[in-house]
């Protein structure tokens, strides 16, 4: 009896081990989707992701076959339907997708970048701030104040000394304005000077007030000059997208981000399409994932275009598994190890530099 039980236990363990061995030796069905440089759909899949998966599969000792999908959504559906064991590619990890599938540990962290033509500032661009509404309002306000002070001085002082300030009101007020200007600028030519007590009181008060006003006005001019010299026509940040046509991936989150800053998004299917639109001057800039932008951004154009990285909408790429997949744990361990050894970063760098 005991002997039979031992035999049964032995056979159960043997079948379990054989079953597990058979399962491990089964070729994995690997779905793949994405665009260059992460996935290049040649006769033999190439790119960052195939190179990465080759390392993972070798380390876990599994064979595999590829099945190409036109989009991540199609690959996700195939995963949930049990047609494939894993979907690989530059797949953004988000909560909506995580409701139906299981994500691996992120294998790469990325962000959006802005690619735009390099535009030099013209003479008018440097001069334009002096014709801005704010600057003109400030100059107009100063002229009004000078006119008021000059008129008051003529009323208090000029009419009593017409031989110095002129009998004609317009010319007399002009002399008062001139005195207000030289007082404010501390030039003090001495051609006019208050003689009466009310006149001296007015000029004394104006000296104090004009000292403060002149300081503020000069500071405003200096700020205008500084802003003018530092302003950029080349689009480098989201704040510069207002009124511009921007090629973007057709994701609602990115499209809305462009709309929120006053830009007009132009959805594209891939980064190559976006880059072609930029070269043909059909859009003003491209807002896309940094890695594909660096890949498609050829060396011959680097003098004419600039790629800006501003930590725009960071995102994480991972692989997709069925919710109850036992494979995910093994792949996670390999991803963590490869990231610690900087091997993934090396693969990315190699593919970007091959362009």
Features:
355 residues; alpha/beta; D-Maltodextrin-Binding Protein, domain 2; 3 domains; nine-stranded mixed sheet; 9 strands; 50% helix
Please identify the structural class as seen in this structure. Answer: alpha/beta
- The appropriate CATH architecture of the largest domain is 3-Layer(aba) Sandwich
- The helix content, as a percent range, equals 40-55%
The number of distinct structural domains comes to: 3
Shape: rod-shaped
Largest sheet: 9 strands, mixed
Q: Given this structure, which CATH class of the largest domain is correct?
A: Alpha Beta
What is the CATH homologous superfamily assignment of the largest domain? Periplasmic binding protein-like II
The SSE string, one letter per element, is: HEHEHEEEHHHHHEHEHEHEHH
Please tell me how large the radius of gyration is: 36 Å
Enumerate the spans where pLDDT stays under 50 for 5 or more consecutive residues: 9-23
Please report the total strand number as a whole number: 9
Q: Give the N-terminus to C-terminus distance in angstroms.
A: 72 Å
Brief account:
50% of the residues lie in helices and 17% in strands.
Protein described:
- It is a single chain.
- By secondary structure, the protein is an alpha/beta fold.
- It has 3 domains: 27-110 and 316-353, Periplasmic binding protein-like II (D-Maltodextrin-Binding Protein, domain 2), CATH 3.40.190; 116-123 and 234-313, D-Maltodextrin-Binding Protein, domain 2 (3-Layer(aba) Sandwich); 132-230, Helix Hairpins (Orthogonal Bundle), CATH 1.10.287.
- 50% of the residues lie in helices and 17% in strands.
- Strands 1, 2, 3, 4, 5, 6, 7, 8 and 9 form a 9-stranded mixed β-sheet that branches.
- The longest helix is centred in the middle third of the chain and has 34 residues, at 197-230.
- The two termini are 72 Å apart.
